[in-house]
C-alpha cells in the first residue's frame, strides 16, 4: 500500500525525491519558457481553454502584494523556507502518514522552486494560462500546481484523523 500509516525510511526518502523532482521539473520548465517566449507572448494549446504564455509575478498567489515595492519577495522566501523546513522536519521524524509525506514533498518542491525564482529574478515565472471566453484564471506554473496538489492531499489526509489529532488505524 503506497500510503501506509507509519512510513518507513525508504518512504520518507521518496518524499524528498519527489520534492527534488518537482523542483527540477519546475526550474527546467521555467528556463524553457523564459528562453523561448517573449514576455506576454501567448501560444494557444487548446483553443478556447488553455494557452502557454510568459508572465512574471512579483507577488504571491493571484499577484497578491505585487505592487508592494520588493520587500514582499523576502517575506515570501522566508515563509516558504519556514514551511518547507517544518514539513521536512516532520517527514524526517516520521510524524506524517505516507500521504502526508507525499503532500509535503510536493509542497517543498513547489515552494523552493518559486523561492529560487524570487531570489534570482525578483519574480516568479508563470506560463500556464487557463481561460474560457473572456474569463482568465491567473497564470501559474508547475510549482504552483504541485503546491495545490500537495495541499489537496493534506486535506484528504486530515479526514483520516479524529478531532483530537490521534490517528485512526
UniProtKB/TrEMBL annotation:
Q: What is its main location?
A: membrane
Q: Which reaction does it catalyse?
A: Release of signal peptides from bacterial membrane prolipoproteins. Hydrolyzes -Xaa-Yaa-Zaa-|-(S,diacylglyceryl)Cys-, in which Xaa is hydrophobic (preferably Leu), and Yaa (Ala or Ser) and Zaa (Gly or Ala) have small, neutral side chains
Q: Where is the active site?
A: 126, 144
Concerning PROSITE patterns, the annotation shows: SPASE_II
Record keywords: Aspartyl protease, Cell membrane, Hydrolase, Lipoprotein, Membrane, Protease, Transmembrane, Transmembrane helix
A GO biological-process term = proteolysis
Q: How does it sit in the membrane?
A: Multi-pass membrane protein
Q: What subcellular locations does the record give?
A: Cell membrane
| Pfam families xref list | Peptidase_A8
Q: What is its EC number?
A: 3.4.23.36
Residue ranges of the TM segments = 74-92, 99-116, 136-156
Q: EC class of this enzyme?
A: hydrolase
HAMAP family in alphabetical order: LspA
UniProt lists the family membership as follows: Belongs to the peptidase A8 family.
The function of this protein is: This protein specifically catalyzes the removal of signal peptides from prolipoproteins.
PANTHER family, alphabetized: LIPOPROTEIN SIGNAL PEPTIDASE (PTHR33695:SF1)
Q: What name does the UniProt record give this protein?
A: Lipoprotein signal peptidase
What's the source species for this entry?
Crenobacter cavernae
Task: Please name the gene that encodes this protein.
Answer: lspA
Amino acid at each position: 500500500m503506497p500510503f501506509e500509516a507509519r512510513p518507513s525510511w525508504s518512504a520518507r526518502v521518496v518524499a524528498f525525491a519527489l520534492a527534488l523532482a518537482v523542483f527540477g521539473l519546475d526550474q527546467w520548465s521555467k528556463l524553457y519558457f523564459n528562453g523561448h517566449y517573449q514576455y506576454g507572448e501567448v501560444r494557444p494549446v487548446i483553443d478556447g481553454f488553455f494557452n502557454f504564455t510568459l508572465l512574471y509575478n512579483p507577488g504571491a498567489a493571484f499577484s497578491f502584494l505585487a505592487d508592494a515595492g520588493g520587500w514582499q519577495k523576502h517575506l515570501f522566501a522566508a515563509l516558504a523556507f519556514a514551511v518547507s523546513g517544518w514539513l521536512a522536519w516532520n517527514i524526517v521524524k516520521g510524524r506524517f502518514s505516507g500521504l502526508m509525506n507525499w503532500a509535503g514533498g510536493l509542497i517543498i518542491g513547489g515552494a523552493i522552486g518559486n523561492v529560487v525564482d524570487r531570489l534570482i529574478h525578483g519574480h516568479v515565472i508563470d506560463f500556464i494560462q487557463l481561460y474560457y471566453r473572456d474569463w482568465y484564471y491567473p497564470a501559474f506554473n508547475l510549482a504552483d500546481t504541485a503546491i495545490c496538489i500537495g495541499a489537496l492531499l493534506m486535506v484528504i489526509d486530515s479526514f483520516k484523523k479524529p478531532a483530537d489529532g490521534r490517528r485512526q488505524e
